[in-house]
Amino acid sequence: MPAAAKLLRAIIMGAPGSGKGTISSRIVQDFAMKHLSSGDLLRKQIHDKTAYGLTAKMYIERGDLVPDQVMVRMIMYELTSIHNSSWLLDGFPRTVEQAKALLRDQPIDIVLNLRVPFDVIIDRIKGRWTHPQSGRIYHTEFNPPKEPGVDDVTGEPLMQRDDDKEETVKARLEHYRRLTHPVLQFFRNKGMVEEFTGNYSNEIWPLVHQSLSTQLKPLQYTRYE
Ligand code: ATP
Ligand code: MG
Q1: Nearest ligand, CA of residue 163?
Q2: pLDDT of 2-28, one tens digit each?
Q3: Among 32, 54, 12, 58, CA closest to 74
Q4: Are strands 128-131 and 34-37 parallel, antiparallel or unpaired?
Q5: I want to staple 17 with a disulfide (CB 3.0 to 4.6 A). Which of 61, 64, 121, 169 is the partner?
């Protein structure tokens, strides 16, 4: 019998538009980790009209954070149900209080911080145009429509979502920086943060893969054994 596999407990952090979703899904695929996203969990609780969901809804609709006490209890409960697996936490902790509560309860092995220059993120998001009727997405640089401002299939005009406009994106990024900085600093002071810098997910992913491979065996390799 092989020795019991080591479990990895990781946190992923990154600004909106940093490719956190892409990297997270590759991690959970390649390393058989459970993905626990606080935003997804909250949306599910709201949909299921649980007590957590009803409380959280009021805050989220106002654009506020859900209170630490509620978040901590909800996340800790979810973590107990996956304590036999490796996991990747996403969206939590968002405050130093949440970070402290988490560390009191769980041994965290690593905090992965995705660093994509804000200029790059802004360029990426502000070039995005959609055809609202079909959901088709274009990008002025990476995936331009045949004719500027017009949907390829229907010939109808393309629109830009309000939250994809440059000013809005800048505000969201600043908000993220202000809010997350203390949490990152808290983990950095404990020497827990590994930084991954790049302009594209395809640049960042190999670095993340390599780093996690030193602690966990990627699934791919077991297939070839
Ligand atoms: P992203 O652009 O990364 O998706 P988001 O602002 O949409 O960011 P989600 O993670 O999808 O954030 O969460 C949606 C909302 O749920 C947040 O705006 C916040 O109100 C609440 N929320 C999520 N995680 C937390 C947390 N750890 N603490 C407090 N509130 C949270
Ligand atoms: Mg979201």
Answers
A1: 1
A2: 555 789 999 999 998 899 989 999 999
A3: 54
A4: unpaired
A5: 121
What are the residues whose beta carbons fall under 8 Å from the beta carbon of 155, sequence distance 6 or more? none
What tokens does 11 get?
A: 């946190």
**Domains and their CATH numbers in the chain:** 9-33+86-213 (3.40.50.300)
Tokens of 161: 């979502």
Q: Which amino acid is at 218?
A: P
pTM for the model = 0.86
Neighbours of 82 (CB within 10 A): 15
> What are the tens digits of pLDDT across the range 27-86?
999 998 999 999 999 999 999 999 999 999 999 999 889 999 999 999 999 999 999 999
Q: What is the ipTM of this complex?
A: 0.92
Q: How far is the CA of 63 from the centre of ligand 2 (A)?
A: 12
Identify the burial level of 43 via C-beta atoms within 10 angstroms of its C-beta, where 0-12 means exposed, 13-18 middle and 19 or more buried.
Answer: middle
Token pair in block for residue 101? 């509560």
Query: Residue 63 C-alpha to ligand 1 middle, in angstroms?
Result: 9
Does residue 46's CB lie within 6 angstroms of at least one atom of ligand 1?
Answer: no
DSSP 64: P
Cis peptide preceding 218, ω within 30 of 0:
no
For ligand 1, atom 10, name the residue with the nearest CA: 39
Judge whether 66 is annotated as a binding position.
yes
